[in-house]
TrEMBL record, chain A:
MF annotations from Gene Ontology: molybdate ion transmembrane transporter activity
Protein topology in the membrane: Multi-pass membrane protein
Function description: Part of the binding-protein-dependent transport system for molybdenum; probably responsible for the translocation of the substrate across the membrane.
Protein name per its UniProtKB record: Molybdenum transport system permease
Keyword Transmembrane helix tagged: yes
TrEMBL record, chain B:
Taxonomic path: Bacteria, Bacillati, Actinomycetota, Actinomycetes, Mycobacteriales
Keywords: Metal-binding, Molybdenum, Signal
Name this protein carries in UniProt: Molybdate ABC transporter substrate-binding protein
Family of this protein: Belongs to the bacterial solute-binding protein ModA family.
Pfam families per record: SBP_bac_11
GO molecular function term, any single one: molybdate ion binding
Positions of molybdate binding: S13, S41, V143, Y161
GO biological process: molybdate ion transport
Amino acid sequence: MQASRPRERRQPVILALGVIGLALLVLPLLGLILRAPWGQLGELFVRQEVLQALGLSLLTATLSTGLSLILGIPLAVLLSHSVHWKVLPRRLLRAAITIPLVLPPVVGGIALLLLLGRRGILGQWLTQVGITIPFTTGAVVLAQTFVAMPFLVFAVEGALRSADRRSELAAASLGASPWQIFRLVTVPLTAPGIAAGAVLCFARALGEFGATITFAGSFPGVTRTLPIASYLAMNSDPDTAIALALVLLAVSLGVLLALRDRWLPGTA
Amino acid sequence: MTSGTVTVLAAASLTDVIDVLAERFEDANADVDVVASYGGSSALAEQIVSGAPVDVFFSANEATMQSVVDAGLAADPEVLVTNTLQIAVPAGNPAGITGLADFARPELTIALCDTAVPCGAAAQSLLDLAGVQAQPDTLEEDVRAALTKVSLGEADAALVYVTDVVAAGSAVEGIDVPEAQQVINNYPVALLAEAPNPDAGQAFIDYLRSDEARQVFEHAGFAAP
């Protein structure tokens, strides 16, 4: 009984700081909602630049989440196997996947340009065979994947680590090939982790700004996604900028709420 | 006697010249520290209207300065320098650009500023004047972003200010446009009404008016109004 006392005394402080922390996260968004030009919102939402940016954002975020699933799940398997590796390569692998999370996205955009731009290390070869990546919708997808895939990799890796590996061993002992084990045992076993990772990845891709504007540029309907359209509109037409930001906020919130409820009943 | 920090928000195209002038001003006024921040003029004006604690605003066009004046945050802006547009191409001009007419060629990669920022508004006037239907691939958020796309060789051409071509050095070549003399961008500067350090801010503006500063501006490609 006595042991629980100090904890009770500490609680108001924890509660107060927690509430301040929450306020720091929520109040700016509340400010956005309060400042929104609600009267003209209906009219702003159907403007072509808003619809175009929304469509492009949904398309590119879906494609980059798909690309992240195809490449990120195998990368997560590799990462989870790396516990058996030597210390240095193991740490290098983890660092390589973490870097896009902590790097300013603009730097990621410059790096992509130096690799895949027309004069980039790989880009100059691609240009010779007629493939130019910068300033295309494909460049937006690549920039978003660069920034968002690590979220998926770490979510899936966490699920792999906590999953019961005995099913995989049983499948192997029954003669399943590694590919069959991956497809029929590992993926279903880690489905909640994959779903959570995909949701985070999609939400991050949707909000991507710095790497996109640096690597893909900004052109309506091709590379100007919602965050870029919102930033540009802030220069000339703050009401449209706020409307675009609200769309972005609503889509992100919708994705996070709806998908978590459907796929992760335990965490709802 | 002036002292303390002068906070300056200046158009992206002023980056190099204000960096030089700020340093010289600091050398002459040991107690003053100039902190300059650069960006698209419209974004800077938005920051000022939103309450950023700034002493001096140096805009790349008068319309943007007017939005700050209209908000009651600046009075009597003064045009200190002017700038004109020029075509920027990567060193060696790989796409063989000869004039504005090339901006209509869809197979080329063309960078322009978005019309929301001064260089984009000026570029649009110039293209209209020349009767060219440009086929841009990207509409950048400030002039330096457009210039960077050219200096990296990612864009075949961009419309930027003469001063940006000078600042980019050997990575970029400039091509004159005859009609550019009719689209002159005026750069007004103003001390802000809510300047935290108005004395030092005014002293810096006075320095920008001096003959010494004039030479630095002209060396960078700016003209007198």
